Amino acid sequence: MSDKKIESSQDQTSSQRYDRLTELFERSGLLSNAAEIHGLLTGMVAGGASIEGEQWLLLLSDLINDGQSLPPAVRETIKELAAESCASLHDPDLGFQLELPSDHAPLQERLQALTAWVQSFLVGFGVNQTNLAGLSEDLREAIDDMVEIAKLDLEVDDDEEAERAYFEIVEYLRISAMLCFNELGKNANTECKTNKTLH
User: Fold this and answer.
1) Closest Cα partner for 183 from 144, 149, 143?
2) Contact 86/51 with Cβ under 8 angstroms?
3) Cα four-point dihedral sign 22, 24, 26, 30
4) Closest CA to 49 of 141, 123, 113, 154
5) What pLDDT sits at residue 67?
6) Burial of 9 (0-12, 13-18, 19+ CB in 10 A)
7) CATH entry, 8-189, from 3.30.379.10, 3.40.390.10, 3.40.50.300, 1.20.120.740
8) How far apart are CA 165 and CA 186, in angstroms?
9) pLDDT at 199 > cutoff 50
């Protein structure tokens, strides 16, 4: 199988998953899509919030469901998503990926999801980290960059240059989330290595 075929089948799988998650959240009456919920979870985990026990789920339902308890199917899916995100942040092969629409989706749609992801990441990160003074210089710089990315102008031309910029930003956010986790989240989440995958 050529690299191109592998890439397109992986893209199809992740895009189907993104659509499925967003559909489940919408059907359950949540106002957040898959990018926002994944960004929030990643920010919490990378910022040092533990996903052991139920406390983090209560906090999450405050943020995404006005404090109402989450439907059982959503709770289970979010638990799996959190465990999987945490495990991929632990991954020595740097397997962590952002939950975003397919690369074949219109650039505008992907940019909206990307800014929603990073805005939500910053909210999740702020749950545990309100004082940035104690962070390493690299991480402070990454958080500052994320704040700037969260303000991105979504009116862009759908051309090759804009596509390239989009992929560079996705990669930068991916690396920054892992940097953040390695500095702050790893010790709080030593138990979340998992082989479980969301289907």
Assistant:
1) 143
2) yes
3) negative
4) 123
5) 79
6) exposed
7) 1.20.120.740
8) 30
9) no
